[in-house]
Amino acid sequence: MNNKASEPAHNDYKKAVYLTAEDLRIAASILYNAYHDDAFFIAALHQGNKAQYEQKLRGAIREELHSLWQEEQALIGLFDDQRLIGLACIVTQQVPLGEARYWHWRLKMLISTGWHSTQALMNKEASILELLPSTHCGILQFIALTPIEQNKGLGARLIQAVVSWCDEQPELDGIGVFVTEDKHAHLFAKLGFAAIESLIIDDVEGELLFYRSAESE
Q1: DSSP string, 35-83
Q2: 122: alpha, beta or left, given left = phi > 0 and alpha = psi -120 to 50?
Q3: Are 180 and 198 in contact (CB under 8 A)?
Q4: Sign, CA torsion 8/210/143/65
Q5: Cβ-count burial of 191 within 10 angstroms (0-12 exposed, 13-18 middle, 19+ buried)?
Q6: Which residue positions in the chain have pLDDT lower than 50?
Q7: CA 34, 95, 124: angle at the middle one, nearest 5?
Q8: pLDDT tens digits, residue range 136-188?
């Protein structure tokens, strides 16, 4: 699936387009700041040492971004002119996920985060995959805005870009996302995502939400 040059959505002076390789460093920084206090990542990566946790989080995000890029998965960036201000990362079941992850992904994650954390990341994917309605679904791995662009309605724009992208993929039945905060669940619900089931992943409670693509309805 080659999707790096298309534009999934446009919104006045802000636009959502596919990321280039040159965008990945800034994308990783945005994700790090957004997920620093995420309940799942704290449970999966934090083992009592803040500095080690932050190093592991940087490594996990870096390796996952590069893996998604190399596997030509959808990395959608929200830009204000030339400035990247947010992004959404989608992985589909066209690539092995969960316990089926490629050995080189496992090795890089082991080096970056350790065995327990790598296993936790795979377990999260496996738990989500088990509940998705078919093997033709995607997972929204990351979605984030820079701190100064939050609370401006831009999160909804990013989700709308994800939904638009999903509707344009004839092979996809929809996209699942695991959320741990009520405010995020409400936003996804307003934009067409429906709750599938409550989940506890690595002792973190959350909700699995699913958007069913227009093509599969």
Answers
A1: HTT-HHHHHHH-SS-HHHHHHHHHHHHHHHHHHHHHTT-EEEEEEETTE
A2: alpha
A3: no
A4: negative
A5: middle
A6: 1-12
A7: 45
A8: 999 999 999 998 888 788 999 999 999 999 999 999 999 999 999 999 999 99
